[in-house]
Design brief:
Oligomer: single chain
Number of helices: 5
Shape: rod-shaped
Number of domains: 2
Number of strands: 0
Order of helices and strands: HHHHH
Distance between the termini: 105 Å
Radius of gyration: 36 Å
CATH topology of the largest domain: Serine Threonine Protein Phosphatase 5, Tetratricopeptide repeat
Strand content: under 5%
CATH architecture of the largest domain: Alpha Horseshoe
Largest sheet: none
Length: 130
């Protein structure tokens, strides 16, 4: 081999090693970046989970209040609407408003004495006294 061939092979070997180092560093940085992109959102969700739970609870109470208002609006137009009265009782019970559930249930007992509303009314009144 001549000296020019040796120089060529040495230069080529250096270029290959340099490319290998560059490729290695790009691979390491890419792997690290993808790992960070997967871990950061997971940590963020874990940290911010508690406020979301509190927000979900307040959203649920807001939804129940809106449903109660809707049933009350129907009852203003149709005071004897059985579905609205039942819905209002159920929503108020979900809101743990036993006193608020008694009045529409009493109206249901008066309008539909053949139904099982009387037993529910007695049970609610027992809960109210306890």
């Amino acid at each position: 081999m001549t000296s020019s061939e040796k120089e060529y092979f040495e230069t080529r070997a250096k270029k290959i090693k340099r490319l290998q180092r560059i490729f290695t560093w790009v691979s390491i940085i890419s792997f690290g970046g993808s790992t960070v992109m997967a871990v950061v959102p997971t940590l963020y969700n874990a940290i911010s989970e508690t406020p979301k739970q509190q927000k979900a609870a307040s959203d649920a109470s807001t939804v129940l209040q809106q449903q109660a208002q809707g049933f009350e609006m129907v009852l203003q137009r149709e005071p004897e609407n059985r579905i609205a009265l039942e819905g209002l009782v159920n929503v108020r019970l979900q809101m743990k408003d036993v006193k608020g559930a008694v009045a529409p249930l009493e109206k249901l007992v008066k309008l539909y004495p053949e139904q099982n509303y009387k037993a529910q009314l007695e049970q609610l009144k027992k809960q109210q006294t306890n």
